[in-house]
Amino acid sequence: MIISMRLHATREEIDSVCERIQESGYKVHTIQGEERVVIGAVGVGDVTACLESLQAMPGVENAVRISAPYKFVSREFQPQRSRIRVNGIEIGGAELVVMAGPCSVESEAQIMETAEAVARLGGRILRGGAFKPRTSPYDFQGLELEGLKLLRKAKAATGLAIITEVMSDGDVELIAEYADILQIGARNMQNFALLKSLGRAQRPILLKRGISSTIKELLMSAEYIVAHGNPNVILCERGIRTFETETRNTCDLSAVPVLNALTHLPVVVDPSHAAGKRSLVPPLARAAVAIGADGLLVEVHPSPEKAFSDGAQSLTIPQFGAMMRDLAPYIELWKASREAA
Amino acid sequence: MIISMRLHATREEIDSVCERIQESGYKVHTIQGEERVVIGAVGVGDVTACLESLQAMPGVENAVRISAPYKFVSREFQPQRSRIRVNGIEIGGAELVVMAGPCSVESEAQIMETAEAVARLGGRILRGGAFKPRTSPYDFQGLELEGLKLLRKAKAATGLAIITEVMSDGDVELIAEYADILQIGARNMQNFALLKSLGRAQRPILLKRGISSTIKELLMSAEYIVAHGNPNVILCERGIRTFETETRNTCDLSAVPVLNALTHLPVVVDPSHAAGKRSLVPPLARAAVAIGADGLLVEVHPSPEKAFSDGAQSLTIPQFGAMMRDLAPYIELWKASREAA
Amino acid sequence: MIISMRLHATREEIDSVCERIQESGYKVHTIQGEERVVIGAVGVGDVTACLESLQAMPGVENAVRISAPYKFVSREFQPQRSRIRVNGIEIGGAELVVMAGPCSVESEAQIMETAEAVARLGGRILRGGAFKPRTSPYDFQGLELEGLKLLRKAKAATGLAIITEVMSDGDVELIAEYADILQIGARNMQNFALLKSLGRAQRPILLKRGISSTIKELLMSAEYIVAHGNPNVILCERGIRTFETETRNTCDLSAVPVLNALTHLPVVVDPSHAAGKRSLVPPLARAAVAIGADGLLVEVHPSPEKAFSDGAQSLTIPQFGAMMRDLAPYIELWKASREAA
Amino acid sequence: MIISMRLHATREEIDSVCERIQESGYKVHTIQGEERVVIGAVGVGDVTACLESLQAMPGVENAVRISAPYKFVSREFQPQRSRIRVNGIEIGGAELVVMAGPCSVESEAQIMETAEAVARLGGRILRGGAFKPRTSPYDFQGLELEGLKLLRKAKAATGLAIITEVMSDGDVELIAEYADILQIGARNMQNFALLKSLGRAQRPILLKRGISSTIKELLMSAEYIVAHGNPNVILCERGIRTFETETRNTCDLSAVPVLNALTHLPVVVDPSHAAGKRSLVPPLARAAVAIGADGLLVEVHPSPEKAFSDGAQSLTIPQFGAMMRDLAPYIELWKASREAA
Asked: How many whole angstroms separate alpha carbon D63 and alpha carbon C311?
């Protein structure tokens, strides 16, 4: 920690700060600047409580931590990139993994038709919501258990792995029986009760960044899962909330290289939720591959104009096929750069 | 709904849109503008799914709903302001209610000293966290059940009502045994599993606005609770996330009159979390009273520099006393304007 | 400056950083932490260039400045609050100053009727735009010189001081002939050519905060004006851009106490532009007075529904009168607290 | 325009609205909905003033315009993409144009070395600031005329076209003598006095998006330039201000396809300012090419650690060379897709 004292901080204020630092287990280094005193706290101690109490002390201008607040997810802790294996696929490895499917599982016909197309056109994982987080209590809330069973059926028919969302710590066990990857939605990124229960789950987790969460907060939420026992976390950039209204959210693609520098965990991009408009999905997907994402999460629906949710951002099956063909040379370049790395 | 067609939308595209609207149960009104066709959908139907699918149809520029997406919480549904009774106090009524206490319950001595001071200095409700949402898994997570028992003890000693946070639908019943009001934190405002379970709780709910939630989303989350059976919801503005870094969050005080126009539910302000700095709490509290909030939620701690959490924004007991004295004439003006209304 | 080195920074990297710091005129203090090296740069030197180049050097994690980047506007430089005198009024002194008038000067009848009402109802300064910044080139751009002449006429008739906007460094001299205060709009807060020319103007400046400018950036822009020769700067909070759409902007009222701690310059609030809706102006004005603003800037128009611009947020004359009566007891409390301070 | 009336709007309120619409030159279409009345205004009239006054009228819930507020820059007005010719290069055409150079022109040696390298490594246009917008009045403000002369020298030596920033309408003529393209910085995007003067300039304009400007506002500012006589406008995405602090700004790459759908003007991306960190520039540049930008604007400096400004985000010459090699296959794909389009 580095603590900057105010311009006219008194000797007593400085001494109290130094005492508080030492009580927390740190050593004190004082720098007498031209204008003000700056104090360094060195060592290992109870950093958050110490920091907050220092910020509350008289004479303190500012107190900041220098070390990262996360550990297990840090690239300093594990320099080589994590590869997460699921159903014979490796996320974070030599293959760019495409996860695709409808926003919600709506019927057997809908999910089987989509699954078959996703498998045929190059997707490796089928997405589809059975428990749906909806802003309105009056909107379709998902088929729940029936939806999970349909996803299992689609897996049996196509061999695709299954990813689906968990919304409550009470549902983790049930959903883990049916799904290969548990998806945590943006609105639950800081549902800490849920994060703790995921630490005990036997499935990889795909953790979506909250729409107003910083990259550091995303890593802290991943740290919760890892610290509670589950090292298999995939991060997902899906757009952040900004003032711009032409897109549903603003896709923060620079988060991909930023995360790659800070963490060893794989990072995928969801261009569908980021854009909120079908026409923007293929160009954003291209950019996500070019910038080095480990995979894509894309919404596909046999008839988006009849979808129960997210119709405006879902690709039709032919559009998904066209996007996969368009992506092919970019994926080749991606592979070449992975091999070179 | 109002649907604007693109400039060069074809006859077929327009016809398909009209059909889709009628399928959803609406009547169609077409306006042939100078440049483009605009279509009104009138009646009652499945608005969200229809809207999303219209946005996905060829030739559609834009589709927006006109009616509010919430009903029970709307002031159009119930013109007179709701008054929520708890422990002999009325929130939303003739009294401005001050809720105060520490961020976390830390020990018997700490909570008893604080409760006694809050009661003596004019607070009516004691706040204190037993289950704590913390960004880092390594930070203090609350005393949990032991904390709840200490809150009960403080209530017995002072007569103050108790408000404390619930983080998981699994904890609602337990916490409702100990608390008079269940607090939902900003990070859980869209934890829909939790919101649904609160609909079945026998306690009033204080629902904090998410740091990046719109006012409309806050009302939709309240609608979840009410639609699931619990009409006693208090809304809380506690600062939103913006680019500004001088304050922890930006206190959106204009949300108070905006909410008062849209909903009958009471609205309180939490200046402590909004500001993140102790010195800003009294001026923000003054402004919150002046703008017409129904109450305040304030962090107070006997020794903020030793607090396990939120020390920098907690008032000391003497500071809380000074703030209450400073507020007194503003509260008098508040009462006069309530009586006049 | 404090420079944190990366975890595995080499001896050479650390040495290069120390050299660069010394070249810029600073002394070096090295702290060897548990995990990484932190370097303090002490003294007086070319801080911005040094900081940017340090951030560019290998092995550097982060480099931050400790001292404030502004000087003349700082409360550390001048502890007592500035009082700015104009036309017999003091802004920042013992009186809360209300500036009111239409968005645009539209006609002689309109400005004379408004000026007379503003003077009668307790306003001290007449606002009115002659040169208008409009998002669209097709919207009314102001009466320009004719508008200035009408403002002069209104001043002659009522004794009110005049505030009007300057949009280009080429217009400063002309407008200074007609206006008592030169207003700089939010969009020009970082128009540095304009700021420099205002340093040479013989009039006080009202500088509006940019809609996405931090408080620090606002102070840096004020510093430009003061450093170029004009110490008479009034700051104005007028709402910032956030994700919320119920209001035109989000009024950051906590900026008032934050600014009061950082600078000696007066701070006024413009609730009209912040809210964008007439009904929100009186409650926001009340909150602005309660939080300690030195004045208000309010839009008033004899017939808002016929206004050339900003009709939705303009008060009618009777509404302005009602607001002034409503504010009276809050202004009394404001005066009492100023006298006590 | 579409005007939604409040739920309980009276007959008189509705009639007044209809009258106001007709006075502005529009025809009225009324839709009597289940819950409320919605009014369409059809035809050609004075849209902004009418809209604002409608929003101010009693009984009006909301009034929105349907047609785009810009005309000349719209793709509906000109379907084929604009190609802007400068110095034998075409921006918006068959070649992806790289503009590169230092943030500031600092010395003859610096600019000549950079220019030579940019030309050799595949850049087509040399960037370099002579008049610098700096947040602090104490930072380097540019070499001004001397800087312009050095740019001319660099052009003579290398054949590169020159782009440099204009900050005031008073400087347009002077700078147009030396530069091939006039750059307008993000902070001046809504400096309307400057925009009008650019309408009379004989040079193409590169207009940077303001850090908190919407895409619509960017187009409106371009419309100012075009409506005042200069059709040669290049748009530039350079990052927007969000809550994220890991990057200097958030690069809104989805703005590229959004703009391509709305306007015929070319769009380039500035990854250097968006990221603020050198290491993020090559991946962002790759993504910008993949998403379909017409060009790149990149900061390059012979010794970034000695730069007067923006050192942290400037590439060294070898890094620029590596980036250009890395981009080559992406540029090939870009060309193929342009030819196919």
From this structure: 13
> Considering only CB atoms, which chain A residues are within 8 Å of B175?
none
Q: Which residues of D touch B34 (CB under 8 A)?
A: 42-44
Whether the pLDDT of residue C29 is over 80: the answer is yes
Collapsing DSSP to helix, strand or coil, B58 comes out as: coil
Question: What's the rounded Cα separation, in Å, for the pair B307 and B98?
Answer: 21
Q: Do C136 and D191 touch (CB under 8 A)?
A: no
Residue B235's φ and ψ, nearest 5 degrees, are -95, 150
* Subunits close to A (at least 3 CB pairs below 8 A): B, C, D
B190: nearest CB among A69, A187, A304 = A187
Residues of B in contact with C289 (CB under 8 A): 290
**Whole-number Å distance between alpha carbons of D254 and D259:** 9
Does residue A65 contact residue A51 with C-beta atoms inside 8 Å? yes
Residues 71-110 in B contacting A (C-alpha not used; CB under 8 Å): none
3-state SS assignment for residue B241 = coil
Question: Torsions phi, psi of D297, nearest 5?
Answer: -125, 115
Show which of residues 197-236 on chain B sit within 8 Å of chain D, judged by CB atoms.
Answer: 212
CB-based contacts of A19, cutoff 8 Å, min separation 6 = none
Q: What percentage of chain C's residues is helix, strand, coil (to nearest 5)?
A: 40, 20, 40
From chain B, the residues in CB contact with C327 under 8 A are none
Which residues does C15 contact at the CB level (< 8 Å), separation at least 6?
none
CB C89 within 8 A of CB C240: no
Domain-wise residue ranges, chain B: 2-64, 84-340
Q: What is the pLDDT of residue A68?
A: 84
Q: What is the DSSP letter of B191?
A: -
Give the per-residue pLDDT at D311: 85
Query: Does the distance separating the beta carbons of D40 and B34 come in below 8 Å?
Result: no
| Average of per-residue pLDDT across A169-173 | 95
Q: What is the 3-state secondary structure (H, E, C) of C238-275?
A: CCECCCCCCCCCECCCCHHHHHHHHECCCEEECHHHHH
- For residues A321 and C341, the model is more confident at A321
Give the DSSP H/E element, type plus range, for residue C25: none
Q: In chain D, whose CA is at the least distance from the CA of C186?
A: D190
Of C279, C282, A287, give the one whose Cα is nearest residue C269. C282
Strand segments, DSSP code E, in chain B are: 2-5, 26-32, 37-43, 60-64, 84-86, 89-91, 97-101, 125-127, 161-165, 181-184, 205-208, 233-237, 267-269, 295-299
Residues of C in contact with D219 (CB under 8 A): none
Homologous superfamily of C84-340 in CATH? Aldolase class I (3.20.20.70)
The residues that bridge with B97 in the sheet, in sequence order, are B295
On whether the CB atoms of residues A221 and A190 are closer than 8 A, the answer is yes
> How are beta strands C89-91 and C161-165 bridged, if at all?
unpaired
pTM of the model as a whole? 0.94
The interface predicted TM-score of the complex, written ipTM, equals: 0.94
pLDDT tier at D333, thresholds 50, 70, 90? very high
Chain B residue with CA closest to A312: the answer is B56
Give start and end residues of each alpha helix (H) in A228-316. 255-262, 271-275, 281-291
B244 touching C (Cβ < 8 Å): yes
DSSP B338: H
Q: Which CATH class is domain C2-64?
A: alpha beta
C151 to chain B, closest Cα gap in Å:
32
Q: How sure is the predictor about B288, in pLDDT bands with cuts at 50, 70 and 90?
A: very high
Helix axes B11-23, B47-55, angle to 10 degrees: 160
